[in-house]
Design a protein that fits this description.
Chain A: Keywords: DNA damage, DNA recombination, DNA repair, Metal-binding, Zinc, Zinc-finger. Chain A: Belongs to the RecR family. Chain A: May play a role in DNA repair. It seems to be involved in an RecBC-independent recombinational process of DNA repair. It may act with RecF and RecO. The complex is a heterodimer of chains A (197) and B (375). Chain A has two domains: 47 residues, RecR Domain 1 (Helicase, Ruva Protein, domain 3), CATH 1.10.8; 121 residues, Dna Topoisomerase Vi A Subunit, Chain: A, domain 2. Chain A has eight helices and six strands; from the N terminus they run H-H-H-E-E-H-E-H-E-H-E-H-E-H. In chain A, the strands form two sheets. Chain A has a four-stranded parallel sheet with strand order 4-3-5-6. In chain A, strands 1-2 form a two-stranded antiparallel sheet. The termini of chain A are far apart. Chain B has 375 residues and is an alpha/beta fold. Chain B has a domain of 174 residues: P-loop containing nucleotide triphosphate hydrolases (Rossmann fold, 3-Layer(aba) Sandwich). Chain B contains nine helices and 15 strands. In chain B, the strands form three sheets. Chain B has a six-stranded antiparallel sheet, covered by helices on one side. A six-stranded mixed sheet of chain B has the order 8-12-13-3-14-15, sandwiched between helices. A three-stranded antiparallel sheet of chain B has the order 9-10-11. The chains are: A alpha/beta (197), B alpha/beta (375).
Chain lengths: 197, 375
């Protein structure tokens, strides 16, 4: 245990995801010995992120104004909507450059073990958006795990009666790798999902 | 397939031990508590990445050491493969295959195929249904690794569904309305039926292939004292491993059980509630069979697994930990006949005379200090 401010800093850092007690201590002492200007910059960045960043009123992605960059972009199609769990998933899909529609960020997935139900996600907001009638296709891009699949099924069950086409991202082999390095589970699923060429 | 060499560093009671094996039979003899089973356990760990004795890795590391190392040279089809595992409790294990690091420890699965019979296996016959489900699922994954994913998915769905039911149950009990939301239960039902059908169909196919081997193995060990029969007891009415039909049956059963599930706050339908029925003649082995019969039955289950894996084309290593002391002379001799042809057979015992003459091949003396080959 250290005294006063340094221990407070270690405790705070230790609460961050992926930071253990040893790492927290290392970061704390790094900050202590760093240039005051650098530390001020970090402190300002931390403060600003809470003050300035908010969630887009339409898609609930992180934004610096009322609407995010993607929702403001007039060149994007309003007919295709991609549902993701987190803002970082938007960034991942944007990196592909393939998708020119809009997004909807749920803010997580249905997870009863952690007490997350549909009411804790932005599913009601999604239904209101779809009710406006411009969306023709809904792409469900939740994670390919138990919780993501359940969320996708839940949304699909609600949306199908509205006459909107609902699709789900495919799962299978990573591109550019060797077949021999794929694990049995992924390879097994890719076999199940094989298609005619 | 056979294990040519086993090296242990800081594993259980051993600071360091090296043993060279040969194909065919080997008998490890030593007094109680000197570490015979530790050697067998290490081999089991290489084959399954888990111990057959404990659920966590901490007891595997020698007191005072940070990590344990298992090094194992396996010969298959004339080629030697070196597998090295470092067990670090509380952290991911590190693995090397043929001197180069593996990306995941899981990659070593399949390098060593092993069927292990240990005294703990008595629970397969006398214990809870969970023991028998684990036996089936482990064998299913050993034959078809894809089922590791099916099993994990299914267990996750059951966990989530139980959490949802329990929250609703508690909310109702305390009279509150928060958390009592069961609107997603239909979704979990769909997924439970889908993954459950996959797992159940896999188990049914496995039991169909395995049951004749069980009958044969028990008959061979016990020589005509009642016939052993294995059948799968599902919680829903299913006959054939038809995935679509099972999915529908599970969905129907879930709908019927809905009110009692909500009442009790737990998932009551699905392969996690199933059992394997082990009959001996007209009676179930559990509750009716004698100690010796249970022992023979458990042995038959392992021998059947061995036969089935062998029929698939890869000859596993067979390990019999402390089995002969519990069998009468007739059963000992018949077991010796049955397993004498194994490509490699490792037997442990406290008294060398318990092992039939036919199996005595190479002898190793196990003591606290280590393992010595005796001629």
């Amino acid at each position: 245990m250290y005294e006063g401010a340094i221990q407070d800093l270690i405790d705070e850092l230790g609460r961050l995801p992926g930071v253990g007690p040893k790492s927290a201590q290392r970061i704390a002492f790094h900050i202590l010995s760093a240039d005051p200007a650098d530390v001020t910059r970090l402190a300002t960045a931390l403060r600003k992120v809470k003050e300035l960043v908010r969630f887009c009123a339409i898609c609930h992605n992180v934004a610096e104004s009322e609407q995010c960059r993607i929702c403001r972009d007039p060149r994007r199609s309003d007919e295709v909507l991609c549902v993701v769990e987190e803002p970082k998933d938007v960034v991942a899909i944007e990196r592909t450059g393939e998708f020119r529609g809009r997004y909807h960020v749920l803010g997580g997935a249905i997870n009863p073990l952690e007490g997350v139900g549909p009411d804790n996600l932005r599913i009601r907001e999604l239904m209101i958006r779809l009710g406006e009638g411009t969306v023709k296709e809904l792409i469900l891009a939740t994670d390919p795990n138990t919780e993501g699949e359940a969320t996708a099924t839940y949304i699909a069950l609600m949306v199908k009666p509205m006459g909107i086409s609902v699709t789900r991202l495919a799962s299978g082999l990573p591109v550019g790798g060797d077949l021999e390095y794929a694990d049995e589970i992924t390879l097994g699923r890719a076999f199940e999902g094989r298609r005619a060429v | 397939m056979y294990v040519r060499r086993l090296e242990l560093v800081n594993f259980r009671s051993y600071e360091r031990v090296e043993v060279d094996f040969e194909p065919g039979g080997s008998v490890l003899v030593g007094a109680n508590g000197v570490g015979k089973t530790n050697l067998v356990e290490a081999l089991g760990y290489v084959a399954t990445l888990g111990s057959h004795r404990v659920a966590t890795d901490a007891p595997l590391v020698r007191a005072g050491a940070d990590s344990a190392v298992i090094r194992c040279a396996i010969v298959h089809d004339g080629r030697e493969l070196l597998v090295e595992l470092e067990i670090v409790p509380g952290r991911a294990n590190r693995a090397r295959i043929g001197r180069s690091p593996a990306r995941r420890a899981r990659d070593v699965l399949g390098a060593l195929r092993l069927v292990l019979f240990a005294p703990e296996d008595l629970e397969l016959v006398r214990g809870d249904p969970s023991e028998r489900r684990k036996y089936l699922d482990d064998l299913l994954v050993a034959r078809l690794p894809r089922y590791a994913g099916v099993r994990a998915d299914y267990e996750r769905v059951v966990k989530q569904r139980n959490a949802l039911l329990r929250t609703a149950y508690l909310a109702r009990k305390t009279g509150g309305t928060r958390g009592g939301d069961l609107s997603t239960l239909d979704v979990w039902d769909t997924h439970l039926a889908k993954h459950g059908a996959e797992l159940l169909a896999g188990r049914l196919e496995l039991v169909a292939a395995l049951a004749p081997h069980v009958t044969k193995a028990y008959d061979a060990v016990a020589a005509g004292k009642g016939a052993a029969a294995m059948t799968y007891k599902a919680s829903v009415p299913v006959e054939t491993p038809d995935r679509t039909a099972i999915e529908a049956a599970l969905a129907t059963a879930l709908a019927e059980a809905r009110s009692s599930e909500v009442e009790r706050g737990v998932t009551l339908v699905g392969p996690h509630r199933d059992d394997v029925k082990l009959m001996l003649g007209e009676l179930p082995a559990k509750g009716y069979a004698s100690h010796g019969e249970c022992w023979s039955y458990a042995l038959a289950l392992r021998l059947a697994a061995y036969d089935l894996l062998r029929a698939d084309g890869i000859e596993p290593v067979l390990v019999l930990d402390d089995v002969f002391a519990e069998l009468d002379a007739g059963r000992r001799a018949r077991l010796a006949d049955l397993v004498g042809q194994a490509s490699q057979l490792l037997v442990t015992c406290a008294v060398a005379e318990d092992v039939p003459e036919a199996l005595r091949g190479n002898r190793y003396a196990v003591s606290e200090g280590g393992v010595l080959r005796v001629q």
